[in-house]
Design brief:
It comes from Streptomyces lusitanus. Keywords: Isomerase. Belongs to the PhzF family. This is PhzF family phenazine biosynthesis isomerase. One of its GO terms (molecular function) is isomerase activity. With 296 residues, the chain is of the alpha+beta class. It has 2 domains: 133 residues, Diaminopimelate Epimerase, Chain A, domain 1 (Roll), CATH 3.10.310; 156 residues, Diaminopimelate Epimerase, Chain A, domain 1 (Roll), CATH 3.10.310. It is 25% helix and 37% strand. The protein has 7 helices and 17 strands. It has an 8-stranded mixed beta barrel with strand order 1-2-3-4-6-7-8-17. A hairpin with a 7-residue loop joins β16 and β17. α1 crosses α2 and α4 packs antiparallel against α6. The two termini are 25 Å apart.
Amino acid sequence: MEANWQREGMTNPMSRPEIVRYAAFTHDPAGGNPAGVVLDASGLDAEAMLAGAAEVGYSETAFVTDSAEGSRRFRVRYFSPLTEVAFCGHATVALAVALAERFGPGEIVLDTPAGEVPVVTRIDDNGAVSATLTSVPTRSRPALAAELEAALKALNWVTGDLDPALPPHVAFGGNDHLILAAGSRERLADLEYDFNSLAEVMRRHDWTTIDLVWRESPDHFHARNPFPVGGVVEDPATGAAAAAFGGYLRTLGLVPRGAKITIRQGEDMGRPSDLRIDVDPQDTRTRVTGQAVRIG
């Protein structure tokens, strides 16, 4: 694996791409979701990027594979330690903040395997950098009975654990996520699932994460995101799932126009994360906002 990363997948084997590390959706390097960022991966093939992501060991690493000189448009690919994914929200925020620190804040456009994702970065008076991404168009549909049964079994949940006011859905915000709403904060906190069984269910249905949520109020949710298909037990912040969740709420008619909704994630892992989503009932895209900070 190291040989692929350092030699076989590189057009210039003498130069090793720099990997920078950021914690996304937090202002604290010890919180949020860590992501790797490679700002120049033009010399890497897919095998080398996968090996690099495995070496980094985070749930996702973003690789900039192409950019036009003088342009603020970048082509990006995302890899977990086990596979490539079409879109990753927290790595997008990390990448955008890394670019803002080097080239200044403003608007950039990312060409991802899921589609075009505009991002706006800002620096506040204290020097903190935040990014707002606009997702690809979202959609959401009720989960099928067989899908729900298999997921609940692997999670060691039962239907009585769910909030009947928030029905199970499969929602898309760049990739698909099964959304299950817990009936209590205690149910959300008690997460012990069958890693291999849940990974098999997710691969069968092509789900990137399971988005487990609990509604504290109409505009404040708590979330947890198992990610066994990426080789990770749980994500402490999942921007792609947050984008899909915005589409879910819009589909169910649970947001007023221009609603700003906060999602607290990672708390049960000791890596608290804060995500904000802006949902417009007339717009299928979700805007996801968060800070990111350099690790080390």
